[in-house]
Amino acid sequence: MYQRFANLSLDALYGIPAMCPVTNCQAQMSPLEMLAHLMMRHSPQDSMIEIGEDVAKQYEVEIDKLTPGRNHSIGVIAYGGAPKPSLSCAVTPDLQIVHHLPIILMLYVSPPILNTEQVYMFYLVSAVPSKLVSANVTLLDGCHANEKLGWRCLRNSLDSPLMDSQNRLHCNTDYLLYTATDIRELCLSGEQRRIFVKIVLHGEPFQAVA
């Protein structure tokens, strides 16, 4: 199952459009275009949630609302790293995102293929690929009672960091796979047809963009 996607380039996923996550915005574009769209067309408080280092954030996903063959924006993050009293402040309409690393948590659902199980691919999109910022991404059932790890696959970077980060995603370089069976098991053990995606970010974005 996983071998079929072992050499998948994220470039292929980046060409698939996603719907803008901001309420009442119907724009559709590729993930990297979406990142620019969110920063230039929408206020930060409407499009992003500020998250600090080692702080868990959960996003609800309704399985029946996912469209196979399409990208889906699960969450848009303004990552600030560790608290810095002189720099860190809440994301407001007046704040220019210069002390945060904007990241989109994306989900691609493969289209149904005969005799092939569907897969759910989670990956992180940022304007700046960084080896210094990484994320633990796991799935929870609707009752938050069961947590499931995915299968991490490296892509697009031969020197993508592996040491002490086997279960961590990095922006633009790798992705996390779950099968339809994984999703179905979580739906059966919790509230039906609903799961939660938990993300915990690590590292310093300031060094990444310096």
UniProtKB/TrEMBL annotation:
Residues 20-187 form the DUF4729 domain. Pfam families: DUF4729 (PF15866). This is DUF4729 domain-containing protein. The lineage of its organism: Eukaryota, Metazoa, Ecdysozoa, Arthropoda, Hexapoda.
